[in-house]
Amino acid sequence: AADPILPMRLFANPIFNYANAISFIIAISVFGGIVLMPVEIQLVSGISPGGTGLMMIPLMSGTVTGSFIAGRIMRRTGRYKAIPPVGVGISTVAFVALATLTPDTPPILVLIYLGVLSRAEALAEEARRRAAAANHVYSRANINNVFARLRIAQRRPAEAQLLLRERSEERRVG
């Protein structure tokens, strides 16, 4: 195309490609967390569906604070290459912590683990945004738009699945 959504020269930047690969891996893991964590919290901890929804707030809102923190770090240091591996490492630690959930685990710990997981995802996302060429403001806006739409497309099926599961449980009870 004469004017593609993303300029192809961005894909010549190895940092951009690396950050996108890391972002993809973390997005898949967070998507798994969005789908499976409510079920895990309900079955293991015995918390009601409404309470489980409230416990998912750190997972959904942690991206904002994580992006802010990553932006501040990158502005202070001027470096962004090391941020995606740090995000992957932190998310790995968060998933290992989530794997240790038992019925006796305090709900506050679950909230902390979910918050750490979402902030780790934000580190890779912010680094991917910075990997776009600084003088391509239009390109950065398009990149953010494209990847925001991809994240929405990933989360919508999870929301639909949860809604269908709730409806089927209501029908069985009623």
Would you mind describing this structure in some detail?
There is one protein chain. Helices cover 80% and strands 0% of the residues. With 174 residues, it is an all-alpha fold. The radius of gyration is 18 Å and the shape is globular. The N and C termini lie far apart (55 Å).
List the helices and strands and how they pair.
Blueprint (H helix, E strand, L loop, with lengths): L13 H32 L3 H7 L1 H21 L5 H17 L7 H25 L5 H37 L1
Shape: globular
Q: Fraction of residues in helices?
A: over 70%
- Mean pLDDT comes to 76
- SSE sequence, one letter per element: HHHHHH
Beta-sheet strand percentage?
A: under 5%
Q: Biggest β-sheet: count, sense, barrel?
A: none
Distance from N terminus to C terminus (CA atoms, Å) equals 55 Å
- The number of distinct β-strands equals 0
Count of alpha/pi helices? 6
Multimeric status of the protein: single chain
Uncertain segments are: none
Class computed from helices, strands and strand pairing: mainly alpha
Give the C-alpha Rg: 18 Å
